[in-house]
Amino acid sequence: MKNLRYTSVTTLFMLLLMSLVYACDDNQNELASDTLVVQDVTQEEIKALQFMLEEEKLARDTYSYLGSLWSVNQFKNIKSSEQTHMDAIENLMIQNNIEYTILPPGQFKDDTLQQLYDTFVVEGTTDVVSALKIGATIEDLDIVDLQNYMDATTNPAIITVFERLQCGSRNHLKSFVFGIENNLGTYTPQYLSQDAYESILSQNRERCY
């Protein structure tokens, strides 16, 4: 009985110790994310974060709508990824007390993004290739806008987050182009240079996090 009781106590102690170790790992992960906290954010950087939050929302809302029309895996899968992109920007804004607004689906504060959404949901009803081209166009735009904002800042936290989002957008672009070509269509880049576009397509799928 004494040996059994000793074994039970020892087992309980080991389980408690393991739970503390895992808890420490979680805290380390949280501390790692804290290193992305932005210091001394400029007004231009605030505008960049606010705009990119809505541009990622444009992708999410458009893919959600088009996914309801067409049974295409890209829209279902990438829609969830766009929500993750929104969350990454939103977390950065929350950490730094930056004001922002997320309007209901299909509504945008930025007039240009609103016009794009209104156009996309109409053109996306034509056929599945047109819908996939809209997806490619959004990712094409996203890659360029993210790069322009990264070029305009030296803030390491913003650059880190935007680099990860851009990596995801490159993967998304390749996925949409694959879908277009699989349906016997072609895509011509709307924002990227032809060289940059071909370079992205030539790469293997990237690991972004």
If you had to describe this structure to a student in words, what would you say it looks like?
This protein has about 210 residues and is an all-alpha fold. It folds into two domains: about 1-35; about 40-200, Ferritin, CATH 1.20.1260. The chain contains seven helices and no strands. It has helices at about 1-35, 45-70, 75-95, 110-125, 130-150, 155-180, 195-200. Helix 3 runs antiparallel to helix 6 (about 155-180). It is globular. The termini are far apart. The model is unreliable at about 1-35 (pLDDT under 50).
Low-confidence stretches: 1-35
Name the helicity range. over 70%
What is the total domain count?
2
The count of β-strands is 0
Question: What is the CATH third-level topology name of the largest domain?
Answer: Ferritin
Main beta-sheet annotation: none
**Individual helix count:** 7
**Percent of sequence in beta strands:** under 5%
The backbone outline, from C-alpha atoms, is globular
Q: What average pLDDT do the residues reach?
A: 85
Cα separation of the termini: 51 Å
State Rg: 22 Å
Q: Please trace the helix and strand order, writing H or E for each element.
A: HHHHHHH
CATH superfamily of the largest domain: Ferritin, core subunit, four-helix bundle
CATH class of the largest domain: Mainly Alpha
* Secondary structure category: mainly alpha
CATH architecture of the largest domain: Up-down Bundle
